[in-house]
Design the sequence.
């Protein structure tokens, strides 16, 4: 039985390897259709100051704290709360907590923000995307389990990050990227191959050939937004010893995928409120 499970697991990793490799080599063709000469094309990210007002940020943080610590979202909202603290799937990000599908709790968010978000990406890409989900994320200080450089898959994958709290120094755990790495092919191929042969179950870890010395960390006041191509090698800064970091994460997809249900991490959803601090 164990031999059978080991064989199935190896086959699963091999299938993931080839699927990821196919996406990796297809992505440049998608990128060639996007608008050239923009920060999102050249560097893979763009920074917008004061994209959200302080009042908008504070409202979202209050909703997060109430949902997490006082009452769970009602089922009809389709919102759910994820804690990775006790997850057996990964050893990383044990102090990251997420309120997924936040738009179900605050429907006005779509009305007030979505056009602004989609227009920002349209200006950069020259293409239309759709919003898949709004997620509120809390990163507690952590110097032990922060995930190292990685990508969020190898296909068409964009996110908007909005700092909901001030991230003024490296100790606040800023979003950190390797500029222009969304256009890297061979370094990513090497990571894919090494992840496969070393038995790493996560095919999108960038454990090799990417170093802090070539990275850029985004510091800013609350309300600062980062338009990001998730094929960038990226991470939250690992020496997070300062303040709690609240972030709104907006997941975007190709426009033709509009209406698909967002279920990422639902298997890790908590079933009762929990105290965070």
Sequence:
């Amino acid at each position: 039985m164990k031999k059978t499970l080991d064989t199935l697991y190896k086959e699963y990793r091999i299938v993931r390897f080839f699927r990821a490799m196919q996406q990796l080599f297809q992505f440049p063709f998608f990128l060639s259709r996007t608008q050239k000469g923009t920060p999102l094309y050249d560097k893979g990210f763009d920074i917008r100051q004061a994209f959200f007002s302080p009042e908008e940020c504070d409202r979202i943080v209050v909703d997060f704290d109430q949902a997490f610590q006082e009452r769970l979202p009602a089922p009809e909202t389709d919102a759910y709360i994820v804690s990775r603290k006790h997850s057996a799937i990964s050893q990383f990000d044990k102090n990251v907590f997420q309120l997924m599908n936040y738009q179900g709790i605050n429907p006005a968010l779509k009305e007030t923000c979505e056009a602004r978000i989609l227009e920002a990406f349209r200006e950069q890409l020259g293409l239309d995307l759709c919003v898949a989900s709004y997620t509120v994320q809390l990163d507690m200080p952590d110097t032990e389990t922060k995930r190292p450089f990685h990508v969020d898959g190898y296909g068409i994958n964009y996110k908007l990050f909005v700092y909901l709290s001030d991230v003024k120094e490296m100790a606040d755990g800023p979003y950190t990227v390797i500029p222009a790495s969304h256009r890297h092919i061979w370094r990513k191929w090497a990571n894919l191959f090494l992840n496969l042969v070393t038995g790493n179950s996560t095919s999108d870890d960038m454990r090799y050939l990417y170093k802090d010395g070539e990275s850029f960390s985004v510091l800013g006041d609350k309300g600062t937004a980062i338009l990001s191509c998730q094929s960038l090698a990226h991470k939250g800064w690992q020496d997070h010893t300062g303040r709690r970091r609240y972030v709104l994460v907006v997941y975007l997809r190709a426009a033709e995928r509009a209406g698909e249900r967002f279920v990422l991490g639902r298997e890790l959803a908590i079933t009762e409120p929990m105290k965070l601090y």
User: Anything to note?
Assistant: The chain has a mean pLDDT of 91. Residues 154 and 183 are 11 Å apart (CA to CA).
